[in-house]
Amino acid sequence: MASKFTSSRNSVKIAFTLLSALTGGALFMLLHLPIPWLLGPMIATLIGSNIAKKYYVWPGPIRNTGMIIVGYTIGLSLTASALREMARQLPSMLLMTVLLLLFCAGIALVVSKISGINYKTILLGSIPGGLTQMLVLAEETEDINLTVVTVIQVVRLMMIIVCVPLLIFSPLFGNSSGATDVTPLLSATSAIWSDLFPNMILFAIACTLCGILGQKIKFPTAYLLGPAIITAVIQISGVHGPALPFSMINAAQLMIGVFVGLLLDPRKLPNKLQTISLAIGSGILLIAGSYGLSLLFSYVVAVSGSTALLSLAPGGMDQMSLIAHEVNADLSTVAGYQLFRTFFIFFAVPPLFKLIFGIKKKQTSTIS
């Protein structure tokens, strides 16, 4: 009887949490803020749970479902044509990506010294990967202040979304700043529910099994990368992966956003004003560094300045590709470089991160 009562209470709490999340997402939509169904629920549940924590519950399996959906959409991006473009420009893609990540690591070192926050936390906040993936990696890593990582990542994302279009459409690049809507697009193409079947059944089973298997073998961000890998493999083998409806993408972002929002605690944000100021400063440095690398890129590869900056800007592939279309930049180059950096960060950074800091931890324990 007690278990039924507890289950009933949890159901009410989950419903209350969902209502808060939907309210936050709808508000962000009305205000035309970026990625509203991730940030809106995150902020709404963050505020609500810090006011009345006992009313908020969000089970881990719901978050994992959202991760599987996002992983599937990532895998859809890895098409045969995208792979061919990556292979053709692989050396320069790798060079530019590594230089950008080294620049981010340098910024993180400076910010860590100034703020006194541990380097791992600042580094995860500074890496220009997907917001979701970086937050999940932060959650899985020891000695990380998730609140700080989120603040730095969100500030960077918003600065990129605002500043890069202004820079691209400025006289500096010779592009008209005439009326063009650079509102970010969702990464998935719109689809209707009837288009999902029957192929979606295969992908759903494969993605779920790979997520569970990846978790069991302790694969980094398993519920994201497992589905991404198997989706790409199945697609390349010849089975069409249907695009997801916008409503499903939004639902997945909400599932993840609520979970992260409940993990955050503003009281764990050290020196709030200083941390936010440093996040803004590191965002400005990252944009400046991307611009500097774009000058080198345009010289070495002989592409336009707009193409170079949009290829290296640490924003989302969807936003950068949209702007590239508006200014007649080389869309295939922009999409190829953005996609390569995204997958490089998804697949290479988590194991490298854990390996490097795992070795350091062993060395520290040996010395002590």
Automatic annotation (TrEMBL):
GO BP term, pick one: regulation of gene expression
Pfam annotation, one family: AbrB
Transmembrane segments: 12-33, 65-83, 90-111, 144-168, 196-214, 221-238, 244-264, 276-302, 339-359
Keyword Membrane: yes
A GO cellular-component term linked to this record: membrane
UniProt entry keywords in alphabetical sequence: Membrane, Transmembrane, Transmembrane helix
Name recorded for this polypeptide: AbrB family transcriptional regulator
Species the sequence originates in: Paenibacillus monticola
